[in-house]
Amino acid sequence: MNFKLRINNYINFSNKWLTKFVLVWCSISLVVGVYAINDLALAIAAPLMTVFMYFAGMAMLMFIIGFQRVNPFNSPKSKIVDYAIIFFWCFGVFGFVNFLIFGIFETSEFENSNFFFIVASVFPLGASLGAAKQWEKSSVEE
């Protein structure tokens, strides 16, 4: 499949580096939040919640796609699972960029909401990681 060859490098790269990126992002956010934000609860809770939601998103997406792999109505020759994996991987990357841009450029009436959006912007990458892990499974099965 031609589309698999083109996108394979990006997905394999994300499978290798996304977790490290999210952990570094949240660690830096924790340090910055403790020193720069006057709400200590937000400065501590936002990075921890982001890491939790990142891994929860990864696990949920892996479960959903894994369930669809054994779906008796899904033909082995069907490419629907591969297209779903690509969709969720792209959706996670788009969600990250969208939340990050919103956190940087949007103004809000709520105090420290920009900090929250910037910190939490990495949690959609959990879906990208779950999709990348399922992509790796589908590559091994072929």
Tell me the number of strands: 0
What is the general shape?
A: elongated
The total of helices stands at 5
Mean pLDDT: 87
Span of the ends, CA to CA: 11 Å
Which secondary-structure class do the elements indicate? Answer: mainly alpha
> In which range does the helix fraction lie?
over 70%
Largest sheet: none
Oligomer: single chain
Spell the H/E element sequence.
HHHHH
Unreliable residue runs: none
Tell me what portion of residues adopts beta-strand conformation.
under 5%
Q: From the alpha-carbon coordinates, what is the Rg to the nearest angstrom?
A: 17 Å
What do you see in this structure?
With 142 residues, this protein is an all-alpha fold. The chain is built from five helices and no strands. Helix 1 runs antiparallel to helix 2, helix 2 packs parallel to helix 5 and helix 3 (80-105) packs antiparallel against helix 5. The relative contact order is 0.20.
Quick recap:
Helix content is 82%, strand content 0%. The chain is mostly helical.
What labels would you give this structure?
single chain, mainly alpha
Write the layout of secondary structure elements.
Layout: H1 2-36, H2 40-69, H3 80-105, H4 113-120, H5 125-141
Helix pairs in contact: 1-2, 1-5, 2-3, 2-5, 3-4, 3-5
